[in-house]
Amino acid sequence: MKPDAAKPEKATKPKAPDAKPEKAAKPEKAAKSETAAKPKAPDAKPEGAPASAFLAACRGEKPSHVPVWFMRQAGRSLPEYRKVRQGVPMLESCTRPEMVVEITMQPVRRYGVDAAIFYSDIVVPLKAIGVDLDIVPGTGPVVENPIRSVKDVESQLRDLEPDDVSYVTEAVRGLVGELKGTPLIGFSGAPFTLASYLIEGGPSRDHRLTKELMYRDPDTWDALLGRLAKIAAAFLRVQVQAGAQAVQLFDSWAGSLSRDDYERYVKPYAAEVLDAVADLEVPRIHFGVGTGELLGEMADAGADVVGVDWRVDLADGIKRVGSKRAVQGNLDPTVLFAPDDIIKAKADAVLKAGSKARGHVFNLGHGVLPATDPDALARLVDHVHAYEVR
Ligand SMILES: Cc1c2[nH]c(c1CCC(=O)O)Cc1[nH]c(c(CCC(=O)O)c1C)Cc1[nH]c(c(CCC(=O)O)c1C)Cc1[nH]c(c(C)c1CCC(=O)O)C2
């Protein structure tokens, strides 16, 4: 860990002067009165200043270096995370602002990544409005009373108010001070992925009950996804209004859908979430696992950046996303268990393909696996940062 001490410096130096004006501008932009106004500005350049490498790449501007961060960069792969989390249940840890700040900062300090991802979970806003659920270690979110009817929707899901998640606002504000210019990514689960947990009652391989409800009971489906879209948008707004400079919408399980069903049953609600935060003028990243066949649709839902999983050759992914949006990804997370020369060669292939995109944010194709060696990630960050931007 110590030999890496210089890295965050290296990563923050180029962006520090530019990051401040942006940050200062945020609270004004986030004024409540703007909620209704939705001028779409995917390419907005606040104050005309070149942004951080991460923000520049998201907006399709030329960054000083290829920016890199990792999904699940904070988490069980880090010994310092395991230490802080000892004896504290996952969902409780998300309600303690000091712990959230510390855990979010850990990978930024260790790796000098170009963005921080807010430490929380997609089910936090659901828990905050009273849904009886927990995160079971090694399993994931488990819901006590699954939602399967309009009555369930109405009795269990209400709108999310900023006061329901005041600990999120507090943690984001704390982070903005600590991060010193490194952008913070706020996030939310997308309606379909949240719906899957709520309908199935827990993680599912085939999403059978979810799809069954989708086909059989469109009224309940629309009521449920409509309400989840509002909750997701509200959760993103809270984070941006407190200072997050980008958002990622995780539709992790959307890849289980055919394109036709995605378009009809899911895309309108993802689009609603993305549209509901357009006025905040922060880059919106849209990501799912196994979504190779849906990339065009996910881009079309209104994202500025589309996350590509590793099953898709990035050059193909870029074609599917189109020339109007940036891409994020897409090294296979298990490549980090390969010898160093293979990691580098595979990273180079991603970098080379990414250089043809409108913008490229280097990432894995999904989250860091808990068994990953943090030193391998540290070497990967250095390798990406050394790549020359043409
Ligand atoms: C599907 C999903 C969930 N949560 C999330 C998603 C979408 C991203 C994805 O596709 O992976 C999102 C999430 N969850 C967490 C983060 C924050 C930080 C980060 O990415 O670095 C983010 C962005 C923390 C977490 N969320 C969770 C952990 C691990 C729990 C722990 O450390 O005790 C972390 C660090 C728990 C969780 N929560 C969820 C799962 C599947 C799990 C893993 C269960 C397990 O294997 O134990 C639901």
From TrEMBL:
EC id: 4.1.1.37
UniProt keyword annotation of Repressor present: no
Site entry (Transition state stabilizer), positions: 121
Basic and acidic residues bias locations: 1-46
GO biological process: protoporphyrinogen IX biosynthetic process
Binding sites annotated in the UniProt record for substrate: 72-76, 121, 197, 252, 366
Protein name: Uroporphyrinogen decarboxylase
Organism, as annotated: Mumia zhuanghuii
Gene responsible for this protein: hemE
